[in-house]
Amino acid sequence: MVEPIELSDALERLNAYLENNDLESAVAYLRTLHPADRAELLSELEPEQQAAIIEHLHVTELAEVFEQLDEEDMADVAQHLDVEELAEVLDEMEPDMAADLLGELEPEQAAEVLEQMEEPADVASLMNYAPDTAGGIMTAPPPSLRRFWTVAEALCFIKQHYAQEEDFYYLYVLDRYGRLIGLVSLKALILAEPEQTIEEIMNRKVIWVHADADQEEVAQILQRYDLVALPVVDNERRLIGVVTIDDVVDVIEEEATEDMYKLAQMSPDSEIYSPIPESVRNRLPWLIVNLGTAFLASSVVALFEGTIAQAAVLAAFMPVVAGQGGNAGTQTMTIIVRSLALKEIEPRDTFWAIWHEARVGIINGVALGILVALIAWFWKGNPYLGLVIGLAMTGNLFVAALAGVTVPMVLKLLRADPALASSIFVTTFTDVGGFFLFLGLASYFLRYLR
User: pLDDT for 124-180, tens place per residue?
Assistant: First the structure.
C-alpha cells in the first residue's frame, strides 16, 4: 500500500541523501514511492543526479517512471541511457507511451532505438499518426473475439491472451477481415450462459472514431457517452487501436492549458521559467497587436479633446465605462469560446446566442448603469453626470454582448482559432464603444456638466 506524499518534503529528503552521496538510500527511498511520485521527483533533479539515480534502477522500474513523465521530461531523462538500454526500457513500456518518447527524439536516434527493440512493430505503427490525433494517442488493439465463439470459448481465450493486460474494459468483436462489428462488456460475458455465442450477447452499436480524428474530439466523445475506452478504426473500419480514459485525462489538461494560453495570446509552450528570449518572442508580437488596438481606442478619445477640456471630471469615469465593458465582453467571449470548443454551439447559432447574451447585457447594463449613476451623482453632485455615465454603461454592456458573441463566431467561420485572437478584438470593441458612447453623450449634455 502506497500513501500519497508531500512532494516538497519528499524532494527535500531525496536531496539530503544525494548531498551526502548516499545513493543507495536515495534509490531505496524512491522504490517505496508510487511510480508517479518517482517520476515527479526525478524530473526535479539536476541532470547529473538523474543520471546517477537511473544507473541503479531496473529496466522495469525505469519503464514505470517513463510512463508517468510528460514527453519533454521523458526525452530529457532518456538522454542518460545508451541506445541498447533505452530500447530495453521501451520494450517494457506501453506502445503508445513508447511512441510518444520516440517522437521527441531526433529521427536518426529514434530509428536506431527502434532497430534495437525486440518488439518494435506496435510502436512503429503508432508513429505513423500525428501526435494530436486519435491515432497518435491510441495504444495497440487488444486481442479480440469472433462472433461465432461460445462464451466458454471466449473465457478460455481471455485467460490465455489477457494475462499480461493491466486493464481491459471492453472486449471487441471482429469479423474475418478485422473489421469492428461489436463489443462485449465483462458483465455481459460473466452473466451469459456458457453455450451462448458471442453474437448473441454482443452490442452492435459500437461508438468508434477514425485514426485521424482530433484528440480533443476523442476526449469529448468519451465524456459525452461516459466511456472508459474508445476503439479507433481505419478507413475500412478495421480495428487498429484503442484510446483509454487515462490517455484522455492528459489530453484534457493539455487542451485546457492551450486554450487558456491562447486567450491570453501566449504560446502553449510558455512556462514560468522559460528562457527570457523565448518568453519575449512568445509574448511581444501579441503585445504589439494590442498596442495597435489601444491607439485605435485613443483616437476615439482624441476626437473629444474639447469636451474633456471643458469637463475634466469625465476623465475620472472613462476607465470605469471601458473597464466594465471589457469585463462583460470577456465573460461572454469565454462562454462562447468554451461552447464552440465543446461543440455545444455552431456559427449557425449566432443569432440565438446574440439574442440571449444581448438580453443579459442589457439587464446587467441597466443594473450597473443605475448603480454607477447614483455613485457619480452623490460623488460629484451632478445628476446629469450620473445620467451620462449610466446610459454609457448600459450601451457598452450591450456592445460587449454583441462583440463577445460575434467575434469568436466570425473567427470560427474564417477557420481561425476563436481562443487565439478573440480577446484582442472584443476589448477593442468595448474600449472604442465605451469611449464613444460616454464622450458622445457627454458632448450632448456638455452645458450641464461644466
Answer: 888 888 878 888 888 888 889 999 999 999 999 988 888 666 567 788 999 989 999
* pTM (two decimals): 0.58
Claim to verify: residue 122 and residue 189 sit in the same structural domain: no
Q: At what angle do helices 314-341 and 350-380 cross, to 10 degrees?
A: 160
pLDDT at residue 164, rounded to an integer: 61
The overall average pLDDT reported for the chain is 83
pLDDT of residue 91: 87
Alpha helices by DSSP H, listed for 105-179, are 107-116, 121-126, 134-137, 151-161
Q: What is the 3-state secondary structure (H, E, C) of 413-449?
A: HCCCCHHHHHHHHHHHHHHHHHHHHHHHHHHHCHHHH
In whole angstroms, give the CA distance from residue 352 to residue 336: 12
Of the candidates 373, 279, 257, the one whose C-alpha atom is nearest the C-alpha of residue 321 is 373
How far, CA to CA in Å, does 210 sit from each of 225, 249, 371, 378? 17, 20, 54, 64
329 neighbors 368 (Cβ within 8 angstroms): no
CATH number at residue 70: 1.25.60.10
Torsion of CA 150, 156, 161, 164, to 10 degrees: 130
137 in a structural domain: no
Question: What is d(CA 40, CA 28) in angstroms, rounded to the nearest whole number?
Answer: 16
Distance of alpha carbon 166 from alpha carbon 159, whole angstroms: 13
Q: Is 196 found in the same domain as 108?
A: no
CA angle, residues 151, 157, 160, in degrees to nearest 5: 145
* Spatial contact of 180 and 238, defined as CB atoms under 8 Å apart: yes
What number is the average pLDDT over the span 175-188?
90
Residue 346: phi and psi, rounded to 5, are: -130, 165
Q: Which residue has the cell 442589457?
A: 362
In a domain, 188, yes or no: yes
Q: State the Cα–Cα distance between residues 83 and 109, nearest whole angstrom.
A: 8
Which tops the pLDDT comparison, 284 or 66?
Answer: 66
DSSP-assigned letter for residue 266: -
Which CATH number covers residue 168? 3.10.580.10
